[in-house]
User: Fold these one by one.
Assistant:
Number 1:
Amino acid sequence: MPPAIGLPNVKLCMWLFLVSEVMFFAGLIGAYIVIRFGTAGWPNPYDILAVRITAFNTFLLICSSVTMVKAFQWSDAGDRGRAMKFLTATIFGGALFVGIQVYEYRHLLHAPSHTLLENVEDMMAERGLAVEEGSGHATAVGPQIILASMGQSEEAKQNEQLIKLHDLLAEGRPDIKKTAAPSKLEVVKEWDRRVLEETIALAALFPADSKEGSALRTIGRHQNLYPEGFVPSRDNFTSTFYIMTGFHGFHVFGGVVALIAILALYAVRKAGTMAIEVVGLYWHFVDLVWIILFTIVYLM
Amino acid sequence: MTTATAASIPTHASGHSHHPNYIAIFIWLVILTFIEVSIPELVHIKGVGHDPMTPSVLAPDAYQGADVDKNVQQAALAMAPTERFQASGWAMRIGVLAVLALIKAAMVGAYFMHLRFDGWKLNMILAAPTALFVFIIIMLTPDIAWQWPQLY
């Protein structure tokens, strides 16, 4: 079949596929813009999301776009060895991007008090603010509560942990009655409230522009907005965040799989420069979409 | 933007037309990304261009030196809706970020995807969805504007 509009058919087909992808993401981005700018009280993404880590991920995707286009360039020049090296680097970059996104999701989905635990214990140890049993000091109770709750996810230990947690919460608080069978919902609610309280108290010990102060304030905001974690069902921000970044992540994952397949075929000379160019078009499109998504989801 | 070819790599093998200096484009993309990321960093630290309606979710007086949130909140409440929106610098921040993102996207499309070198016919095919993309955003704008009297 003769090439259409001066382009090889396979390349034109990829472009037609990308045209449909443009419309797919146009729908998502359009919906996001309406929801984002039509909702009062939209949280500042910087308070919730790990913008610096994601900025590194953006850098990574740009790097992988360069290695992709370099693979094409070397293949075009007849140097298959270098082309394969750059293809491998692209696969590595894409896989790392997906890995970092999974890491990001994992942390976002956890209750912020887990992050608090990681930060607060180190800070307190550094500053000599040791945890004292039953001291009632603002800085002492939070980590204890968090520590006591760490096993909650395991079903077998849950009830035991719940009672311990409840007892801790009730210490020095006559308004909380000790009971052998506390309601999980009540305990968790109280726990969330107390963690926020402790975070605010702890944050006041550090200047706002210090590393600790800044981290604690961020955690405090996060804790207040998303005490149960940044879960998709929470609000418009969380659901649109996961839909958009999730679909994009799925595209990157698909691209990595396609790149591995092309590399394998290229290695046994069953795929050539055209295959690299065509899969490269898809890869650059994924990079292009991320440039838009990163800006509107993380920075605006 | 330079389109000089890399010195050590043949550029016209296998009949392909152009290989611009991809490293130069990469450096530009990194610089633009750095500028982009610096804008919310600035907002975060200095409180410039903060969304006036982003809630100050923790009580401002619970923090030492948390005047940024408090000031923004008070200023936002004191201003008329239009002033509140414009004076915050938020619109400028959004505008600058959008322009930077579009420049970066255009660079990826033009150079990495070779749209600049693949002829006008392909560009015409892509013009349709691009126009529709812009059209969708424009047509959705009234949906946002309709809610603003209540929101801002």
Number 2:
Amino acid sequence: MESLIAEAICMGIALYGAVRTVLEKETLLKLPFVNVMNFGIAGLIVFILPHPLTLVAAAAYFVGSTLEANAIASAIARRRQE
Amino acid sequence: MLEEFGRIVVAAVIAWILFLSLDIFWRLPQKGGVSGADAIGEAIAGRDGDQHGGWMMGNIVCSPDASAGTLLAACGVFVAGLPGGIAAAVLVYIGNRICHDKGYAGTSGALIATLIIAGFMQIGFFASDFIAGMVLAILTIQGISHIHASRLIGYFWRWRA
């Protein structure tokens, strides 16, 4: 129970990142806000299910979302070059 | 209750110093590591931000760096103690290789953060404080103002370079 405040902070920051993502107009500049949301959610996954294997789930979520952001950014970069 | 807030703020400051110094040590602001990071850096520079700071923010988005290492190490220590932190470092290294990164910053960040968190747990901190602290630290860099954060990183980068 003692980590309830930490959990609330992670959830609040994840929500804040999601709201800022929606409000930002330019797609490339949305990605840092998505990154903030991913940090919050990766932390939340561990708080919700404190079990050693959860670490693998959190890492898989985080690396997967990073890879997606990487793919979106590089696709936009390539489209600009053409 | 107030005590936990205090611990989280202290953990956030430690995590902030740790991940910024490691990222700058591994030269993340020097250039965009992949084309996507390069494009994000230029988009931030296009809005009157700093070019080097923008590249570093792009690199943080596009590959797990020391900040991701610190977060996952805190998660690992939270669920499984010191071995969990080491396992987190291995997972971050695998993630770095998936994202075409050499993986120095992420892996060293996870290992150093594991040691720091284990040390602070001896003096009454919890690993959960560092999870929330790292989320707060990344919020200040990536989530409030791209322009000001990139200028701050650019200032540190010129100081190092």
